[in-house]
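for the record, two folds in this file. i put them one after another cuz i was lazy. first one right below, seq on top, structure tokens after. the second one comes after a little note so u can tell where it starts
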Amino acid sequence: MQYVLTDSANTLARRHGFIQRQRKFTGALFAQTLVFGWLSEKDASLEHLAQTAATLGLKITPQAIDERFTEAAASFLEHLLAQATHLLITGETTTLELLARFPGGVHVLDTSTVALPPELASRWPGLGGRTPEAGRAALKLEVGLNLSNGRLTGPFLWPARTHDQAGLLPRQALPEGALRLADLGYFSLDQFQRLAQQGSFYLSRLKSSCTLLCESGEALDVLAWLRKAEEAGWERLERNVLMGARHRLRCRLLAEHVPDAVASQRRRRLRRAMEQRGRQPSKRSLELCAWTLLVTNVPEEQLGFEEALALMGARWQVELLFKLWKQHGGIAGSQSTNAWRILCEVYAKLLGMLVQHWILLVGLWPRAERSLVKGSRSLRAYAFALAASMVSCYRLSRMLTVVIRAMQCGCRINTRSKHPHTFQRLRNPYIDAP
């Protein structure tokens, strides 16, 4: 926090033309004002930001803050955020036995988009297709989350129209013994092959267009196999297959029949997604919605069927992280119509979410039953106190001790018997097995 929001902020502010001569309102004070101001209140007004600056020892008017939301300020904050993403902060390794089976960590990859004013379309081109957001400005956040120790990789920023495969995370090597979880946007046989060659593992949903072969090399009609299983009354089944006509990757295919309500919901989502592309889903794709199909190269003795389902469900933890950032951190919202202020707000709030995650790692991550939402709520109450403590590492360290002590008192998720939480499923994958 000291490095990013003091010396680094002052250096980058001068380098990108935001601070051109010696002023009382330095790059560090500007960054700290925005980060802690919006961390304390996601919809903070200019008056609230001026009060944050006063906490930092700077008397400045709301209008003077508003005048500083320029293109140079946005460039400065963008580069400050990029520098902060290179600081990989790691929490204590979780004690959950299922995650501990992968010594290289369990890494979840995902992306999310943030809409921007149309004036920024040249800098951050929006989505294509027939979606309501088509052609508008938007940026994509690319994030990797290690469920084992909480380490966050990113967020890396891309134009919203950038495909997930074109990001940084798919190209990064994972440690030996690591497991990668990702949605279908990251489905790639080349990447699966590279992970296997590195001694790492993958667990993914099966892309419906992917070719599967029997171990003998004959083509496998997945739908016919599933129909026979359904007629026989099988709800779960598994077999070894070769994935890809060219790659022929040896892996396990896991299939679970889902309730009719879940299948209907999936079909509605599929139809809506295809309509946005001007297409109609095939009958095969609609029929496959009745099944959850997973592929993995983790041996059965290391990861059982129910355990694989529990881990795949844990992939939603990164979705919950995005939800935390958007709903409670307000990264996708602004009270302004000024394009440059909105862009500065996105960058500053993302910096605040990084700072928040670092503190949550230290205070809550080792506990499986942690509640990041409750932890963030507790942290926001101390935002002004943290800002005032930035004058020295000693004062900041003492204040962080107070904040962490407060977070560790009550920021937990209660267990549920009917719909178990993710940490309950990871602790006992058979908790609701049929």
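(here's the note) second protein begins now
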Amino acid sequence: MNSIDIDIYMSNLINFFEKNPNDLIVLIGELQKDEFYNRLRDICEKNLKDGKDITISKEQMINVILDLKIPEIKKQKDNYINKIIQKTKFGDIILN
């Protein structure tokens, strides 16, 4: 019975974001929404297993978003650093 509650909760969450795609883009950016939904479902199942309410708290939502965005942020940072540092045959030159 409880997995049905999770299915209903996730269905409502997905329907909300399907009807409001801009809210999803603001929340997770260009990340894979399927991965986002899978992680949210995992949290709901964990909450159920721990005897808590299946709804996702703000803190849990933030943790999922950060877990998904940190690799993307690191990649952008690396690209930025590579633009500042010019690698030449004489060594690295920092364009500051």
